[in-house]
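Q: What does the assembled structure look like for these inputs?
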Amino acid sequence: MSLLSRTEEIVLLTIWQLKDNAYGVTIADRLTETTGKTWRIGAIYIPLERLEKKGYLTSYLGKATNKRGGRSKRLYRVTKIGIDALIKTKKMEENIWKDIPVVSLEGGYEK
Amino acid sequence: MKNKKTFYNLNSFSVWLIKKVFKDDDGVRLGDFNEIYNDLIEEKGRLRARFFFWFYVMMALPQYLKDLTIWSTAMLLNYMKIAYRNIKRHKGYSLINITGLAVGISCFLLIFLYVQNELTYDSYHENSDRIYRISSTYITSGEPIRFASSSPALGPRLKDEFPEVEEYVRILRAPRLLFRQQDSNVSFYENNIVVADPSIFNVFSYEFLQGDPVTCLDDPKTIVLTEVLADKYFGKENPMGKALSVDGEYFIVTGVIKSPPQNSHLTIEGIASFLNIPEGPRLYPSMFEILGFTYVLLPENYDFAGFTEKWPAFYEKYCAEDAALYGQVFEPNFVKLTDIRYGSLNFRFDVPVGSDLYLFAFISIGLFILALACINFINMTTAQAPTRAKEIGIRKVLGSDRQNLIFQILIESYFITFLAFASAYVIMKLSLLYIPIEQMLGFNIEMNFQENSLLLVSTLVLYVFISLISGLYPAFYMTSVLPVKALSGTLKSGKSGLFTRRVLVTSQFAISIGVVVLMLFVNDQVDFMRNQNLGFHKENIVSIQIRDRSVTEILPALMEEFSKYPGVISVTSGSNLPGRPSSGLYWFEGNEGTVEHNYSVFMVGYDYNETLGLEITKGRDFDRSFTSDTSKAVIVNETLVKTMKWKDPIGKRITQSSFQAEVVGVVKDFNFRSLHNEIEPLLLRMRRRPGGRLIMKIEGRNIVHTMSLIEEKWNSISPDRPFEYSFLDEEFGRLYNEDQRLNKLIKLFSVICVLISCLGVLGLSSFNSIRRTKEVAIRKVHGASTYQIVRMLFREIFLLFLTASLIIFPVSLILINLWLENFAYRTEINLMLFLGTVIAGVLVALFTAGYHSIKVASENPVKRIRHE
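A:
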């Protein structure tokens, strides 16, 4: 298990937040909200694939709806390994950020 | 919001497009897009939704594709960038690495081309797998004798009687002919002319640039030339229809063909009609008189069982009678065209045949050099491990898994190998220009990647192979670094890495020592052969071929006159010289009745033995006072006496049809063949009339002067022909041409081997010394002297070298013995040679490593320990 990259972390957390409703469209929308950058559906597929290959996600086919023209959706869930990786990454970040108040960072290099 | 909504589906075009681009296997992605579409309809209304949807798709596309390719290409580019930076950072080592590899690859490719050339002899012809040469085996009193040639009567009869013989052609190599261009005085002797049946163009493939293959040889006084010869005699003019004087007779040029490739067993530069052979020998019906080569065209994959069945009937009809007369049995052998060069056939009067042994030697050398270069590469890369440990540690921390790292190192390996190949190409081109490699190997090297598909494929395979072999071990080894250890800087290279490196270096040493030792032995043997006492006078014997009738007529008087010239010691004549024996079938009076043997024969004139320094040990030499000597006397050599088990050879009768003679003397054994062969039985008999060659022994001083006198006299008698002579030691030396060529080449390649090994030692020693700087510094602080340090660093190399020597010693002994079996006469195996090489090798290795070792050992120890 290694540390997660920024993007990986964000995607995993988003999926975690979406609970049982995490699939392509919803993930992309929520990401766009959170990060402020437009995540289109096409940008999502590959990261999702990679994360699943690494074992952080698992997916299953959901119900088909009329809205989707009769096609099912693929729902994602974070795995235990994924959760562990998230926790590890968070801990490391806390470690690095220890004793560095954000305020002093904003002050710049002087002193 | 209404509860019930109508949902719309995407049209089929959209469906198709999305499926294509976004790789949708299970319809999920399509569903996503569908959903997005419907969302948009809700937001923007049906009409505008479509527009927005397409806009969305357009924008989604590049992101998707970028992600897709980023994964593969970006990583690749990143790795390549790192590889490039690494190379720049360690310029010295990279240079050594790449140079070593490049040299190894160039040598290997050159050898590859050579071997390919040799093994594809004669495959240029379209029918090459259907053409067979018929060789003749004659069995007499139990010993079969095999000739490469056959009777001229055989071909046509076979075609008549065996329907499977589609075509036959007879080819006879003409002796050296004098060509003269009509209008000018341009005249040369041509060696590669043949006479052949016109069917030659049906059997073999020759490309006609001018002329008609069907009719060009209809008239006997016509000739077909290769473009090279046409150019030589006619320059820019069109040679068709023009006359060329060949040995005094005029031939009309009726065709020009493209020069056939060099790798043909028969070098042909001009073809004239078979009808030029006088009727007598040409139409002689007996199967027991051979003349020239006969080739037949058979159907593909011909099964010789059919032939063997019908043969007895044929034999009965055409051979049985003569067989009884000659007392022999005749058997034809079918030799595939492509087997002639390398089939190890051992026929008499054959074309020069390739030697498997040398081919094998070359291939081995090529492989060795390549192995050396690869070992170097592996060593150098693994030696870099400690330096790169930090980089790899960080990468691991940042999330690379081991697979990716291995991939990265492999990419570096591919990158460096690619550079090596590019350099190798340049090296090959340059060396072909400046070093006479083509001359040494004996053929024109063409690096044509388009035509030579085997070359192209092999190069690619080699590229992948080398990259993998040289990259995998370092990749696995270097990526087994534990991140924490690497980052804290306390990483030592593991024990296992050291052992492998030692093994690799030892093998390098072993290969180099082996090659050098073998080279020295081959050199020894070749020198030995050159200086061996052959039992006759080799030096300063001139021979001039007698062709003109104007010379033959006055020959006895001419010889008398030459013998009076200052500088001429002795004059004689004869058809044969050592290195060019004839052979013949004779009946010998044995201890139990007459036996028949086919032995070598020399046809000589008076004073032959004296001129060549051959010693008569029993009886007498040919003597002018015995007039019957020219027809009734024979001298035999000691081996013949031994073979016949004669107690008293003088007076024994030797006959051949009308030739009835007695032994009048025994000559001491001398090597009339190369030292590859044991001395065989030999007969000397006199020509009825003097002729063949004029042979003279001249003094060693003032050779030029003597020769110019002789030339003057000769030209006054035979003005039409250029004065051509040769020295016996040169001609005889040509028998060892192949050995000498091998010698030269092995020398060259062994130098390369040593160089590559030195590069390896250089690189390694520098790494070693850097690695051990801290250790050295600590020792110095504790009082070790520079000398002691250097000795310690040297010890490793010394031990490795010693191990290598011990391993390679028995191996090389075996190989040398194998090679020497080729020769009936050999040098002793000089063990001092081996010892000397080892000692010299150790010195070279230590010297190469010396620079770095001394530098490290004499450094100020404080500098190193300060970092702690």
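The mean pLDDT of chain A is 84.
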